């Protein structure tokens, strides 16, 4: 029987912070993917410390959040610069 742990980060009940859940799993099948996910889940071997798994998952999630913030900032900048081309007229269908 194979034993591994699962570490999960979830928004807390008020959505203003995070909660951490660590659980042990026994399985006769193969261990799931053992890379931290930007979605807040990391399945890792029981031989890895919880502290090490926490650091890896936290780093993965921080990088993903930073990438998403950058994507949104770039999109916002493009939206702020958006103008209606002078050669087009605005449709009055909404009236």
Written description of the protein model:
This protein is an alpha+beta fold. It has one domain (2-73). 33% of the residues lie in helices and 26% in strands. Strands 2-1-3 form a 3-stranded antiparallel β-sheet, with helices on one face. The chain starts with a strand and ends in a 15-residue tail after the last helix. The model has no long low-confidence stretch (mean pLDDT 89).
Can you give the helix content as a percent range? Answer: 25-40%
Structural class category: alpha+beta
Query: How many domain modules?
Result: 1
Can you give the mean pLDDT?
89
Gap from first CA to last CA: 69 Å
The proportion of strand residues reads 25-35%
Tell me the major beta sheet.
3 strands, antiparallel
Note poorly predicted spans. none
Please report the total strand number as a whole number.
3
**Physical arrangement of strands within the biggest beta sheet:** 2-1-3
- The count of helical stretches stands at 1
Indicate the radius of gyration in whole angstroms.
22 Å
Q: What is the string of helix and strand elements? A: EEEH
């Amino acid at each position: 029987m194979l034993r591994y742990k699962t570490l999960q980060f979830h928004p807390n009940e008020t959505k203003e912070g995070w909660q951490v859940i660590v659980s042990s799993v026994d399985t006769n099948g193969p261990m799931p993917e053992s890379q931290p996910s930007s979605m807040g889940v990391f399945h890792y071997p029981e031989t890895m410390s919880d502290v090490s798994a926490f650091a890896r998952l936290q780093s993965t999630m921080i990088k993903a959040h930073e990438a998403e913030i950058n994507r949104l900032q770039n999109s916002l900048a493009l939206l702020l610069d958006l103008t209606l081309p002078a050669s087009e007229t605005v449709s009055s269908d909404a009236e």
